[in-house]
Automatic annotation (TrEMBL):
<feature type="transmembrane region" description="Helical">
    <location>
        <begin position="104"/>
        <end position="128"/>
    </location>
</feature>
<keyword id="KW-1003">Cell membrane</keyword>
<dbReference type="InterPro" id="IPR036259">
    <property type="entry name" value="MFS_trans_sf"/>
</dbReference>
<dbReference type="GO" id="GO:0005886">
    <property type="term" value="C:plasma membrane"/>
</dbReference>
<protein>
    <submittedName>
        <fullName>Arabinose efflux permease family protein</fullName>
    </submittedName>
</protein>
<keyword id="KW-0472">Membrane</keyword>
<dbReference type="Pfam" id="PF07690">
    <property type="entry name" value="MFS_1"/>
</dbReference>
<feature type="transmembrane region" description="Helical">
    <location>
        <begin position="367"/>
        <end position="387"/>
    </location>
</feature>
<feature type="transmembrane region" description="Helical">
    <location>
        <begin position="140"/>
        <end position="161"/>
    </location>
</feature>
<keyword id="KW-1133">Transmembrane helix</keyword>
<feature type="transmembrane region" description="Helical">
    <location>
        <begin position="167"/>
        <end position="187"/>
    </location>
</feature>
<dbReference type="InterPro" id="IPR020846">
    <property type="entry name" value="MFS_dom"/>
</dbReference>
<feature type="transmembrane region" description="Helical">
    <location>
        <begin position="78"/>
        <end position="98"/>
    </location>
</feature>
<feature type="transmembrane region" description="Helical">
    <location>
        <begin position="301"/>
        <end position="324"/>
    </location>
</feature>
<feature type="transmembrane region" description="Helical">
    <location>
        <begin position="246"/>
        <end position="264"/>
    </location>
</feature>
<dbReference type="InterPro" id="IPR011701">
    <property type="entry name" value="MFS"/>
</dbReference>
<feature type="transmembrane region" description="Helical">
    <location>
        <begin position="49"/>
        <end position="71"/>
    </location>
</feature>
Length: 392
């Protein structure tokens, strides 16, 4: 089965549910941005090694892969809004559990529960946003979503810097934030989409292959974002940057992510086939990795390159999500969103491993070559799909 037609949807913007889903997930983003460094610092103060902290954090990717299949069945049974509220409550309880868990082994099941809840929450939020936005504004709406979410993630570390890691206070702030996230969902619960299984319901994994330009776009983004951010400081130090300069370059990537999502989303609304824009983003990603070694000698040139590179590569997630929404609707879109987030989790697992092996094998240049491998493979996939469409 191929999906080439865009479903005929309501042309109105459903503002209440859209704002509810965006604001809810963005508040959760602030909680995640605060909670992730908080948990790492607490483990370090308890005397755990960096490798053990990394192992506990890596459970997040595995939990995301495990949680993705649960989203659609839970939403079909209990409704989108009530499932989201349940996941918000589950995530809040898991966060509190970290404060009271005395033994390190307890943090592993807590991390699994937390990230399964977050995965289901993100899948259903993105499904809700996609169904609330009319086709001609889907890119803009998802660009707003990505921008606000990025700002939420950025606000978390700022809060952490002011709250510190001692005592219950940072956990109390997280509970308050997560409670706030439930309010807009409750307010818009009567306008949440209903997911009804069709007579030919099949496993959600088939949507990986049904809309591969979208699902593999997010896999590449997950690999590049997770592996690139984790190993860029090491890459930076090996090519001669100080720790502070490398950190500022990472900030430039994040700034590009925040500022370029809405403009690129608006462009995607004017493109008849978003696969061409995904191809362009991947090409910019590949060219950017090729030019990194040549720009490395000049910090300002490198910063400008990474600003554009970071924003355009991050748009692969936004445009991939918009392309998914333009091809599917209803139960199929919910299942495809689950496949989409699962592919992001797979990218989270593959990226750091591939880039780490590349740098161990080929030195600093292995960083760019590993990133380029992901972009090159995706470009080949999209070109194959586009040529196949022209020939059929």
């Amino acid at each position: 089965m191929t999906v080439d037609t865009q479903p005929q949807g309501d042309e109105r913007v459903h503002w209440l549910p859209m704002v509810a889903a965006i604001s809810s997930i963005s508040v959760v983003g602030i909680a995640i941005g605060l909670g992730m460094p908080l948990l790492s610092v607490i483990l370090e103060t308890r005397g755990h090694s960096a490798s053990m902290i990394g192992l506990n954090t890596a459970v997040a990717g595995v939990a995301s892969i495990a949680g993705a299949p649960l989203a659609t069945p839970l939403a079909m049974r209990f409704g989108v809004a009530w499932t989201m509220i349940a996941m918000i409550a589950t995530g809040a309880l898991a966060f509190v559990g970290f404060h009271f868990a005395p033994d390190f082994w307890m943090w592993f099941p807590l991390r699994v529960v937390l990230h399964i809840a977050l995965t289901v929450l993100f899948i259903l939020s993105e499904f809700w946003i996609s169904t609330s936005a009319p086709p001609h504004r889907r890119g803009l709406v998802l660009g707003i979503y990505a921008t606000v979410l990025s700002l939420g993630f950025a606000a978390g570390p700022w809060l952490f810097a002011h709250l510190g890691s001692s005592g219950f206070r940072p956990f109390g702030v997280i509970i308050a934030l997560v409670t706030l996230a439930a309010i807009p969902v409750l307010a818009a619960r009567n306008e949440s989409p209903t997911i009804v299984a069709d007579s030919e319901t099949s496993h959600f994994l088939r949507y990986i292959w049904l809309v591969p330009t979208a699902t593999f776009a997010v896999l590449v983004f997950g690999a590049v974002e997770t592996g690139g951010f984790a190993l860029f400081p090491i890459y930076g130090s090996r090519i001669g940057y100080s720790e502070a300069d490398a950190a500022l370059l990472l900030t430039m990537i994040g700034l590009g992510n925040v500022l370029l999502q809405i403009p690129i989303g608006m462009i995607s609304d004017r493109v008849s086939d978003r696969r061409y824009l995904l191809l362009a983003c991947a090409t910019v990603g590949l060219v950017g990795t090729i030019f990194m070694p040549f720009f490395a000698a000049n910090w300002h040139l490198m910063a400008a390159l990474l600003f554009v590179w970071g924003g355009v590569v991050a748009a692969m997630y936004t445009i991939g999500l918009a392309h998914l929404g333009s091809q599917l609707s209803g139960h199929e879109l919910a299942s495809a969103n689950a496949a989409f987030v699962l592919c992001y989790g797979v990218g989270m697992v593959l990226g750091p491993q591939a880039i780490g092996i590349g740098m161990d094998s080929f030195g600093p240049s292995g960083f760019g070559w590993s990133l380029g491998l992901f972009f090159g493979a995706y470009i080949a996939l999209v070109c194959f799909r586009l040529v196949r469409k022209l020939l059929l």
